[in-house]
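User: Can you predict the 3D structure for this chain?
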Amino acid sequence: MNQQTFTDFEYSNRKRKTKREEFLQVMNDIIPWHEWVALIVPYYPRGKRGRPPMGIEKMLRMYLLQTWFNLSDEGVEDAIYDSYAMRAFMGVNFCQEQAPDATTLLHFRHLLEKNHLGEAMFSAINAVLEANGCIMHGGTILDATIINAPSSTKNQSKSRDPEMHQTMKGKEWRFGMKAHVGVDAGTGYVTGVTVTGANEHDVTQASALIREGDTVVYGDSGYLGIEKRPEILSSESLSRIDYRINRRPGKLRCRNDHGGQDWERKIERQKSSVRCKVEHPFRFVKVQCGFQKTVYRGLAKNLNRLQMLFASCNLWMCARAGRTLCYSMG
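Assistant: Here is the predicted structure, written as structure tokens:
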């Protein structure tokens, strides 16, 4: 904001900031706004006809608020009018302008989804992290998580989302999609993400998430037998990788009676100590941002949202680690 209002002076005298305000301040400082805006400019209306379009950065900030706090189009509009922290993040001065309405946000979100700009922003962030030496090479952790979808048929088409499927996890039937991620084994940053129906096996997306130059891959027992997959055997680089996959607990031998070290369980614990890094991005997406159930129909729209969330997660973890990034337009 260019000029402080009386509300800003009043809020500046508070004893402490809320966690929401601290989170938004961190993200405001570390997000490369100029680079992300430059990715959207070629697809954004130029305003030659009709009313002048809203500023790209203002719309991007509103879309990120919707994504981070799991709000509807109308919900995020109301939240900006209601929350000082969100209004400050948007940079809206109600003495001069109003917040964009829900319909404008809807059109902006469709623009991002149609042109796969979530993928472009996710790739751009990872390129910057690599250029700054934040992402290591040589090892990838694979994992997947189920994101539920509404199973109700009380809608206009009287049917469930045809791209979502059901599967049994444990003793519970789950309906929705599955998010597959690849995470850097050294730092925990997300390096790749794909989505499928919930009934798709984890191992089917492994080859798409392994990076070029990886020498070791970690995964849970859902990836057992990955080295025998045809796409792995047919690739010279993938077949040379050391796949360190956790065995199923029931397959481990019982500890002997001689008081010696249980080497099998020790090895499995060491694998798990590396593989646990993948849980931090999942926590950011499903707990901190509340994305535990899909809000859009179809895999493409939800993939775009996941790519924006994981890009934000990488920046959040970078900021929490006390690192700063140098950006270049290249």
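The longest strand covers residues 172-184. DSSP finds 14 helices and six strands in the chain.
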